[in-house]
Amino acid sequence: MAARHLRAAGHWGVLSRTAAAVLGGYALANLGGVALASAWPMARAEATMAALQLSFALHTAAVVWAFAARSAWRAWLGLALPTALCGLTVAALR
Known about the structure:
By secondary structure, the protein is an all-alpha fold. Helix content is 90%, strand content 0%. The chain contains three helices and no strands. Helix 1 (2-39) runs antiparallel to helix 2 and helix 2 (44-68) packs antiparallel against helix 3 (72-93). The longest helix has 38 residues, at 2-39. The radius of gyration is 16 Å and the shape is elongated.
């Protein structure tokens, strides 16, 4: 019975990390791309295209981070803080 509980706890951790990677990575990539596009001193179209390309790398880094963190809690925290920082940057630049 205890082994089954431990396996279920492990499944919830993987599910939480997967959700952090998908949802948190999506939010970070989008807000990071908007923040970069807003902050760069170049033409709007060029800044948008460059930020869009970098947002794919940012999402990949978020997925790697979600599964490299020591715990699911740290994975969420490690994605929530930079996402909030990007959101504040976007709000300040508009």
